[in-house]
Design brief:
single chain, alpha+beta, 4-stranded antiparallel beta sheet
Amino acid sequence: MTDETPLTPHTASRAALSGDALFWIDTRGGPRPSLWTATADGGAARQLFGGADAVTGFRAFAKGRSVVVATDCGGDEHHQLRLLDVESGQIRHLTSDPFVINDLGAVSPDDTRLAFAANRRDRGTFDIAIVALATGQRRDLRVGQGWWKVECWEANETLIVSHQRSAVDIGLFRLDLASGDCTSLLPLGPARFSDLRQTPQGLLLLTDWGADHMRLMRVTDGVLTPVHAVAGRDIDAYVPLGHDGRIAVLVNEEIGHSLHVGGGDAAWREVCAAEGPLSDLRADGTGALLVTAQSALRPAQVRRIDLGTDAATALVSPASKPQTGIASVMAIRATAPDGERVPALLYRPRRPNGAAVMIVHGGPESQWLPTCAPQVAALCALGCTVIAPNVRGSSGFGRRWLSLDDRTQRGDVLGDMLCLHDALVAEHGIDPARIGIMGQSYGGYMTALALGLARERWAAAAILYGFADFTHVIGGFGAWRRAHRVAEYGDPDDPVTRQLLDRISPLPHLDKVTVPVFLYHGRRDVPVPIDNTDLIEARLRAGLAPVTRMTVDDEGHGYVGADTRSALWTAIVAHFADALRLDGMVTDSD
């Protein structure tokens, strides 16, 4: 079992029930996340599957007797699928080509077939694969060009699939397996669709079609009808509770999720208010819910919520120690140059010393929620305030905010970061000479942008598997990803767009940086290959910036391994502690 450290807390998440068995993904038992099981009442846990490859997803079926497991080799995105017999432990490979991306889909209602998307025929296009689980016999159906996904089975011979044209433009289609015909399910304008399910109440989904925020809606004969919406908030997840028509939903409250239950003949009510992020919502069939719960102080655990009493109990908890150092987390706003109010989360240490670090999330279609982030707790334990922006382009705040950084508006994100920098100084007592910035992936780009175009603002920086030149990173994308990202960033083959992308590419300015910069990248990174960090490093070293670099051979776009996470966060915390002159660690007894 991998030892737990303050920077690598054990977590449990993604729980699902099948028959009398509970399954989940756990970070105990090896260097990377693995699949575990127990009885549905939370009995003795045992590891089912794990090893050098991280378990990234699973589908349990046949009353808990079988599981399809998805694994990722070193973060290279080329997920492989295996069929696991729970009782015997026997494993059979459903896919085996290490150069193919297999996107785990869904098991058929009769438990005999698996449907998933794969780019086996053409690396630039995803087809829909149907595999007979008893024999392994496979059939691939061509549905179109680009990025496609399996959403759900509508019936034993019909699938609902999606065409991911962009982050805000997803097409839904019905795929007839007998004929191979793929026809439009909802011939609507651009919209987001997610979490499709065939339920006793019909086909349900989440969408922002016709609204700014994600709503729960029902599809009937090609028509969408509302089921539930919360004004000014996104619904992030839902689960039907049974044939009485009740549904549970998770409402994004910015500092976490609230849980609401209603529908059918029951009025909607709030079961629990937001105390942190909730995810992986499941019904257990007994009038209770399973959910992954965590907070800034508490690592992820699987909880059971009794809807009769609204009481929550930890069903699977890796017994990780609570994070220390954080006194409070609060949502704040700052005003950007164009008048937009920019949201962020502010982490206050128990003993603030005037230093701060801004941590910028990736995506850009993502959201910083107060999950258990050990690097944040470690910085706060040193007296450092942490601010995590949700700049324009972030999800969780409606379609308008999500789209506000598209194409020609990309450069406006710099103003978002700088207005939050100003707010740290003017409103939160931060020393302007002791502010650092860090980000990963797209957040790494924004860190490089802030460092290159506003270098006088920052005392130190860390760029994790980021990029600093749009033309270069887009040129390295595979065909399916390029089409999806060009819709967001713009096409560098267009001369006018190329000029814009060049103006907001910070690479030419990095040789003027003089503050310490930490760089990290995994050699197996596919979305943002390691040569992007090579470019950043070379440009920084061409100037006077002190550069520290960490390169890991067996990681891809991220840091999955426990050893990697421990070494990475230890190095980054030490980097900022030195550059920002942070005090010694604050202990519980202080």
